[in-house]
Amino acid sequence: MLESVYEHCLASDLVRAGLAVERQVAIPVHYRDDRLDVGFRLDLLVERQVIVEVKAIDALASIHTAQILTYLRFSRVRLGYLINFNTLRLKDGFRRLVL
Fold first, then answer.
1. Any idea of the CA torsion for 19, 72, 61, 88, to the nearest 10 degrees?
2. Please, which residues have CB within 8 angstroms of residue 48's CB and are 6 or more apart in sequence?
């Protein structure tokens, strides 16, 4: 399936569990006095405290970890999950990242 389908289903389940979920949240970069909208977009922001980045790829790579670490830094959120749904066992596709 497409990542967008997994993202939508996960967001729906989290909302049904009573959590506040925002999808495709834009994260600006501030440089000097300028606000730059450079295309950083979080897949899911849960309870304004957890970033969830959804993937459906053969294998997670270091660039995917770097991506979510960048999102954590610029959003000032401390906890993030990188979830790859394209695995035989879903637990093998989870990475927890903390700043």
1. -10
2. 20, 22, 77
pLDDT, tens digit (0-9, with 9 covering 90-100), for 12-59: 999 999 999 999 999 988 888 888 877 799 999 999 999 999 999 999
Number of domains in the chain: 1
- Using DSSP, how many helices (H) and how many strands (E) does the chain show? 2, 7
**Does residue 81 contact residue 47 with C-beta atoms inside 8 Å?**
no
Domain of 62, in residue numbers: 1-98
pTM of the model: 0.90
Residue 8 sits in a domain whose CATH number is 3.90.320.10
Q: Are 55 and 86 in contact (CB under 8 A)?
A: yes
Instruction: Identify whether the C-beta of residue 46 lies closer than 8 Å to the C-beta of residue 64.
Output: no
The strand pairing partners of 29, in sequence order, are 36
Token pair 């294998």 in the structure block, residue: 59
User: If we measure between CA atoms, which residue out of 99, 94, 53 comes closest to residue 73?
Assistant: 99
